[in-house]
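WARN  no MSA supplied for this record, continuing single-sequence
INFO  ligand: pyridoxine-5'-phosphate
INFO  echoing inputs
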Amino acid sequence: MRLSVNVDHVATLRNARGGTFPCPVEAARVAMAAGADGVTMHLREDRRHIRDRDLERVAAEVETRLNFEMAATEEMVALCERLRPPACCIVPEKREELTTEGGLDAIKAGPFLAEAIKRLSGLGIEVSLFVEPDALQIARAAELGAQAIELHTGTYAEAAPEARAALAAKHAEAARHAKSLGLQCHAGHGLSYDTITPIAAIPEISEVSIGHFLISTSVFEGLAPAIGRMRGLIAAARG
Ligand code: PXP
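INFO  complex generated
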């Protein structure tokens, strides 16, 4: 199972001060050096975290399997055609939402979704559709010509612990269904140390994409050494 690290929230922190630090491109390098298999970046229409230049730089400078998460709009499809990442994940996008709130409705989607999949997969980009663990949505993804789906794990990850086993079983069934239709199956959204195990145990899921938890928890797991280093520099300056 590949781990794709979503570095969007490094850009969120950077943008909070309007400068250049912390840099999501550097985070992509660190993620790869730490054992990630790929990096996910969501370029939102409003550019609230990742910016075009971040994506261009990761595509050009970082040895990684870049997964470009994007809405099915002409602007994003054209950018993806130009950058030609190995993979892209098409998600629904609403301006008001804090994060992607659910899977794409591949059944109700207009003709542009099919066109986007055709244009991108024609360039050899692996196109995945972010969908709920729902048999009809998965079948539609296959019909539309996607090579993969990414199961939305947000509802599972946010559920009460006693409700999670049943939801994980639903993801396992969806993953088997996807595989039987010849689709690669990925999963992501809201996963953490507490929720990864049942998802990682599903053999048909070949990739997980994790962002917010990893970036947030690194504040705690990395805060002590950063304070120690700063103390050391202060002490050294004082002789
Ligand atoms: N997969 C998709 C399609 C997403 O939209 C997101 C959030 O940007 C993720 C995975 C990662 O979710 P999280 O940041 O909650 O780990």
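The chain has a mean pLDDT of 96.
INFO  checksum written, moving to next record
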